[in-house]
Amino acid sequence: MNELETLKKELSDLLLQDTVDNNQVLLLSKKIAGFDTDTVRFSVDAGVIDRLGKELVARHETAVSELVKNSFDADASVASLYFTDVYDIGGTLVIKDDGNGMTREQLVNGFMRISSTEKIHEPTSPVYNRQRAGKKGIGRFSAQRLGDSLTIITQTSNNNFALKLTIDWNKYSIDEDLMFVTNKIEEIPKDKSIVSGTILTIGNLREWWTEPMIRRVYKYALDVVQPFPLSKKKMIDNKVEDIGFRIECFKDGERIVDENSMFYEHSLAEIEAYFDEQKNKAFWRITKSKIDGVPNSEVEIFKDEKDLNIHYTHLKGVHLKAYYYITNVNLIPKQVESYIREFLNFQGGLRLYRNGFRVLPYAEPQNDWLGLDESVRRKTILPVHGNNNFFGFIEIDGASDKFQELSSREGLLNNEAYQELVDFGYKALIAAVLRIASARGIKTTTNEKGWEKKTKDINKDFILEIADELDNFADKLEEEEPKNGNSSNNENNSSESNSEQESETKSKAHDYRNKAKQLRMLADEIDESNMVRVLAGLGIIMGEFTHEIEQYLSAFKVDAQYLVDNLEAGTELLNRAESIQRTFNSIEIYSSYFDEIISQNVNRELEPIEIREVIKPFVKTISPDATRNNIKISFEFNGVDLFTCKMHVSEWGSILFNLYSNAKKAIKRAGHNNGEILIKGGELDGKIFVEFYDNGDGVPEENRERVFDAFFTTSTAKGHNRTVKNESSGTGLGLKILRDIVTSYSGEISLENTIDGYSTMFRIELPKASQELINEYGT
Amino acid sequence: MNMVHKLVYIDDNKANRETFAKGLTTRGLIEIEAIEPDGFEATLRYLIAEQDKFDGLILDLRLDEMDEGKQYAIYTAPSLALAIRSELASSNSPFKKDFPIFLLTSETKLSQSYNAEFTSYEFDDIFFKQDLGQYGKDFELKISNLVSSYQVISANKELGKLLDIDLEILSEDVVPSKFKHTEHLTTHEVSQFIKSQLIYKSGVLIGEEVLAARLGVDIQISSDWVKLKECLKELQYTGVYSEIWERWWQFRFLNWWRREFPNSKPLISLKAVERVNLLKAKYQLNNLEPAKPIQYATGEKFWTVCKALNLPLDTIDGFLLEDEDSKAWHDKQYISFQSIYERDYKTQNLIIHSSEKERIQDIKEKMKS
User: Fold this and answer.
1) CA A688 centroid distance within chain
2) How far, rounded to the nearest angstrom, does the alpha carbon of residue A22 sit from its chain's CA centroid?
3) pLDDT tens digits along B80-108
4) Residue A416's CB: how many other CB atoms inside 10 A?
5) Is residue B199's pLDDT more than 70?
6) What is the pLDDT of residue A451?
7) Which of B19, B129, B340 has the CB atom closest to A559's CB atom?
8) Beta strand B125-128 with B101-105: parallel, antiparallel or unpaired?
9) What is the pLDDT of residue A409?
10) How far apart (Å, rounded) are the C-alpha atoms in residues A526 and A464?
11) Between A122 and B269, whose confidence is greater?
């Protein structure tokens, strides 16, 4: 019997057995097919999964945001992300949504089939007709990219069980045939508390995660997020109206990122307006504001300012809430401004909810139902108040029957009630906007510069003194408490009012302590702004100094060379002369680098920067210094025309030099003799990035989120009792200044997971120059 | 000429002047008298009065800076040099002989703006104070050579003699009629013509890198390159400045090839490998390696070098550089796409010819997609 016959027999024997080993069937079939002399087939190595994962999903944040978009595509209303134990690699990420879930068929032929065509065939989601946001087929690779294992638990509304699929990505190693790698799938009881949904558990994460990284996940998924998705489902024209989508992120159980921390907290002011049924009047007030001196008193809204006796008659149960933003004037932190602005542009405006249902088309793109944009065009009211300055909503209580909803997406009937509603909304917002503007006007400048000037003159010690006094005051309040308690026990009068008083005292003490804390932070910021001023002055002196010293260094080198040339070989004198020469060469490298940086400051014009043009000369200049410190520097660039937005060349001098000296210190601390620095540059998703790696002692996990803080240095502990000596040993402003530079161009600098062979990686991301700019400056 | 040349060095920095002078005189080829600047006219008068005692002048760039609370001069080196040059060019010059003027400065940025060594009108060469410690001896040799060459030129300005060639052999337009009769020209003008038009720019004369590119040889890894150069001795330029700058006559080079390899195709239509194989066989030199194209380039019929990377380049892969002073007998200057992609040309202040922009744009677009 030849081999083929043997195989055929083996296979037929196998198929006759009671329990068939499917892998063995596949293996035998494959071998039999291998004898086919006329046709051949492609086969796929299991290693392809790992390769595709790495190639298709460049960054771990993108990987998670792709999974979030999958939840959106599955008609979920919320995706909850739970990061656990992620301070180091090996943590866990759970992504939970209330979407449609997957049937076995969808799981097997969709998720488990590489290059499946579902998203091509069905560009919109089944229930809400959402435009699918996830990239085709990226989900599984994202999961693979993120961690060693993946468990999917999914349930649909139709099935009375849930499915659990477990994948161990380690099994997909090179030289295995993809076909033979099996994954366990089982039916498990349904979670009765939800109708449908999917839970992804990604285990043994390959990266550690910081809060800024988690915020980035949110940002990358921004195009599927909607503000105030608090409405209930309802049918319009036999279709279910989309209820919106939100994302919330938890780290070790603590809620850290959601729409509140991403958007609402950064608003300039929060405005509320309502109809008071007892007084039968409408009011507005500013409940929170970042501008000092904005009163939060209640103000009446008059239907007719000329005749104060005319009242609104249809506004019963109406409530308005709005978050107000002014972009581009330093009123929003730079780090968050660019995405907030973008988001305002396509999601801004005041939505309308009735009985918890969203009423369309209000606050849809181009819908200007309160007439805000039109009012901006009229230019009679100057402070900005367009739809893209607000996130907000107006709620109508179900009790009011004055509002009549039309069919389809036509909104409310344009009756007297509706007109009152529009009038009320517009007037409330405008009045609040004017109040904020006047508060800003009184201060003439609210931008940071003016603020700095003000704080600079305040004595830091004075502030700290007040803070201490506040603390003392709080202590005293708390001390007095038990006394009160005792006397009330004796007299036995209303203990209720006493405990009320007690809690009030407590909250007051707490309040004072908080204020003291804020004052101390303010004192730190005074330190910071003073230090920045000192450093700026130093910079000017350094410019003079380096220019002057060039002359002396050159003369010194001539003499040193003479000694080296003329001293007798083998003598200690020659050794010393050579040592002097070496030491001086190090000084010269620094001085010529600074000389160059300073001479660049003559040019004040900003221009797009091709990162190669700043990094290559930097590496060239600094290489002798690196060599002397046993550090190897290399760089690699990828992509053509790596131009950042317009910047100043010398800013790159600061960036690179700071990162280099940090790396040098870290390598020195690590105490090894083969330091390595790698600088990578390239383009990703329309951004230019530079990654700076070193193999120093690394940043301990507890410091990862603090390294960019002012006065944070690795050598000295930051604390209340730090001494003058500590502060002068290193300014601790290096990375802080870098962050200021980078964020002022709407870029980002962060500490990231590194690659093999390195222990620290700083990543800078900056907007890429427009094509027009590149054409202008490119050649 | 073994005589010691004497130079006057003017610098307002009292503390370091002597040290810099010492740094330039360790080999004993030149002697330097270091002095502080006086007023503009006074300095000029001094130089005229003392002209028999020096053969060249070295100037610090910023003569007008404060030194130890004293400002000696209110002019800078270029204006003084220019004044001397125009005196020398006038028919009744107070100077009896022409002499070279050198600039010694710590402003390294100057090197970025222009190639002073060849193209500056005021100065014959420029040296940086920062390099004095390391290269002082080389500078000394160069200064000495330049001074000697000035003396050779002023002794007999006939161009054929200076270039050590029969001018009739050169094509008409290489030597403008102005330079056919050079008696009335200053030594400086003749010197500048030879340096900037013949030595600096590849064309009539070629440098080592271009020579190697045309022979298809990778000089980085060919240990027999020195031996091959020996075989080409008869092609070498032997005229004035040949001690400082090594050059070869292009027309002799082509004649040599035709003579030595009469059966081969024209040199320009051979690939580097073919050229090197012929050379290896003919001269029994085994350690010659053919040059390879720069990344993104494909042509192997090298004829020039990438100006930014100094590596052999086939002109079909080249991108033309802007060169306003280019004459008909100069080779066109090119850079490789690699140097554009990696931005090396930019850090060397090279300017791409405007006609190439579209082509570059197209290639970049293709790379992106």
Assistant:
1) 17
2) 47
3) 999 999 888 888 889 988 999 999 988 87
4) 11
5) yes
6) 40
7) B19
8) parallel
9) 66
10) 11
11) B269
* Distance to chain A for B73, nearest Cα, Å: 18
Output the pLDDT for position B284.
Answer: 93
- Cβ distance of B16 and A552 shorter than 8 Å: yes
Query: Is B23 within 8 Å of A561 when comparing Cβ atoms?
Result: yes
For B318, other C-beta atoms within 10 Å of its C-beta total: 22
Residue A558 in contact with partner chain B when CB distance is under 8 A? yes
What pLDDT score was predicted for residue A84? 96
Tokens of B194: 């030879």
Asked if A552's CB is within 8 angstroms of B108's CB, the reply is no
Residue with tokens 């005293």: A476
Indicate the residue type of A368.
Answer: D
Which residues of chain A fall short of a pLDDT of 50?
Answer: 442-457, 485-491, 716-729
Residue among B23, B347, B367 minimizing CB distance to A640: B367
Phi, psi angle pair for A68, to nearest 5°: -65, -40
* Percent of residues, chain B, with pLDDT higher than 90: 62
Q: What residues have CB less than 8 Å from A713, skipping those under 6 apart?
A: A729, A730, A731, A732
The minimal CB distance from B341 to the residues A551, A613, A640 is found for: A640
User: What pLDDT does residue A615 have?
Assistant: 95
Among the partner-chain residues B16, B134, B360, the one whose CB lies closest to the CB of A555 is B16
In terms of Cα–Cα distance, which of A361, A349, A344 is closest to A426? A349
Q: Which residues pair with A749 in a beta bridge?
A: A764
Closest CA to A257 of A486, A408, A61, A21: A61
**B14: contact with A, CB 8 A cutoff:** no
Mutate to test the interface with B, among A589, A640, A777 (most CBs of B within 10 A): A640
Taking CA atoms, what residue in A is nearest to B136?
Answer: A558
What pLDDT score does A494 carry? 52
- Give the closest of B23, B361, B364 to A558, CB-based: B23
- Which residues in chain B touch residue A609, judged by CB atoms under 8 angstroms apart? none
Q: A565 touching B, CB under 8 A?
A: yes
Place of tokens 């300073």: A598
3-state SS record for A617-658: HHHHHHHHHHHHCCEEEEEEECCCCCEEEEECHHHHHHHHHH
CA distance A247 to A217: 10
Question: How sure is the predictor about B172, in pLDDT bands with cuts at 50, 70 and 90?
Answer: low
Structure tokens belonging to residue A735: 């990375």
Distance from CA of A748 to the nearest CA of B (A): 24
Q: With an 8 Å Cβ cutoff, is B223 touching chain A?
A: no
Residue B2 pLDDT > 90, yes or no?
no
Find the distance separating the first CA and the last CA of chain A, reported in whole Å. 73
pLDDT tens per residue, range B49-76: 999 999 999 999 888 776 667 777 778 8
Contact B22 A617 (CB under 8 A): no
* Distance, CA of A5 to CA of A8 (rounded, Å): 5
Q: Tell me which H or E stretch contains A456.
A: helix A448-456
In tens, the pLDDT along A142-192 reads 999 999 999 999 999 998 899 999 999 999 888 888 888 889 999 999 998
B23, closest residue in chain A (CA to CA): A558
Q: Which of residues 328-387 of A touch B (CB under 8 A)?
A: none
**Residue numbers of B between 105 and 134 with CB closer than 8 Å to A:** 106, 108-109, 129-130, 132-134
Q: Tens of pLDDT along B303-357?
A: 999 999 999 999 999 999 998 778 878 899 999 999 999 999 988 888 999 999 8
Parallel, antiparallel, or unpaired: how do β-strands A675-684 and A631-637 relate? parallel
- This model's pTM is above 0.80: no
Note the pLDDT of residue A703. 82
E strands present in B113-247 = 125-128, 205-206
Cβ-defined contact of B343 to A779 (cutoff 8 Å):
no
Q: Do A424 and A318 contact (CB within 8 A), yes or no?
A: yes
